[in-house]
Amino acid sequence: MSDTAQIVTRFAPSPTGYLHIGGARTALFNWLYARGRGGKFLLRIEDTDRARSTPEATAAILKGLEWLGLDWDDEPISQFARKDRHAEVAREMLEKGRAYKCFSTTEEIAAWREANPRQPFQSPWRDATDLPDAPYAIRLKAPRTGETVIADSVQGEVRVANDQLDDMVLLRSDGTPTYMLAVVVDDHDMGVTHVIRGDDHLTNTARQIQIYDAMGWPRPVFAHIPLIHGEDGKKLSKRHGAVGLHEFAALGYPAGAMRNYLARLGWSHGDDELFDDGQAREWFDLSGIGRAPARLDFKKLEHVSGHHIGAMEDTSLLSALEDFLAETGGEPLTPRQKERLCPALTVLKQKARTLPQLLDQARFALIERPVDIDEKAAKALDPVSRGMLKSLTAAVQHASWTRDALEQAAKAVAEEYGVGLGKLAGPLRAALAGRTATPSVFDMMTALGREESLARLHDQTELAG
Fold it and tell me: Residues 190-208: pLDDT tens digits?
């Protein structure tokens, strides 16, 4: 490939289910590599398995990529829609003598394999000249000697003895192309320069290289990335928890955090753990991908998520919260709730690691009067405590509504009653939020504002007599 040629990568999922977290990482790696070099990132839906491919799965994949923030160039390509082109290439190889007609039946092939265990099938029709008028498959006339060498950017040089590979079928007897042929033809026609995919495809690559060579097409750069394992080191499955990208979205990890975490899952740039999209695009390179399987670590994911939530602009964070509620069936925020939530986000986002955690901490700003006091918080609201709240209400009535001013006023009231600030914070927390686990009482008061805070205090001081 010329050094001046435009980089073209692709993501080619099969629409048979949700977008797996491993597929999402593969898409991200392709996206980062292309976007960081001014290249193109293409999308191909490998929907040749008509029995399992569904429009709903395709829609789910596209939705997952959009949520993750990965944009693609051009319209997504349907592999099935290109079946005539695939067949055309198979017949071209036949004309060039790079492939041949094979008339072996399924039963004959099975019998041969039984008689020759652990050997690749050798068709008796490879060099035949007297051909019958019968249905046939088109097989690749693969080299029988030597090696097929894969120069892999992650795995290094991988060598496969050609006598271990059979003459694979390119076009079935019913005229349908095989997946192996379709992938090569599509990648060539789409101008793909770099094939970045899971290392479970490595065994297919030697065969696919033989098709490139048979057609005289330039090989793309191959980079086979290790799969993702669970925390126990075993292949990732549902027993490890969330495995679909939609599940991580539903758990409340922001898309930016997922991009950071997934990029770091199997790839590294020195000791950098936390970075933004611009840095990821600038730094990402195939040489940084390790050969060992990456391990999904939910604690590390939460750490990354907390960093990104804390770094988000308040308006972006509010939008992310609204999207999260819409996706998970939560009640949409009212204008009044958003008005109270916005000033609270600056403080709350520094401690939350997921969007549900943030919403839980923000509950005080989302509830309406009269505040429902839970049983534990109600214990802090005895007559003496309500008296202190009444004194505090009077003290802050005309005070400057800043955190420092409110804290000084509260300390003065606590001293007046001969108690520590903590003795006042408990009933104040109950009056403002209705429960004992909340953000700082002064952060809540500044977020709620003077009118709402005093109204909530008034609701409780009225009961003081």
Answer: 999 999 999 999 989 999 9
Each residue of 272-284: pLDDT tens digit?
999 999 999 999 9
Q: What is the mean pLDDT of residues 155-164?
A: 96
| Residue 238: predicted pLDDT | 65
Q: Give the residue numbers annotated as catalytic, written as ranges.
A: 238
Q: What pLDDT, on the 0 to 100 scale, is given for residue 49?
A: 87
Please tell me the predicted confidence (pLDDT) of residue 4: 61
Structural domains for the chain: 81-225 (3.40.50.620), 375-464 (1.10.10.350)
Query: What's the rounded Cα separation, in Å, for the pair 145 and 158?
Result: 16
Per-residue pLDDT at 230: 87
238 annotated among ligand-binding-site residues: yes
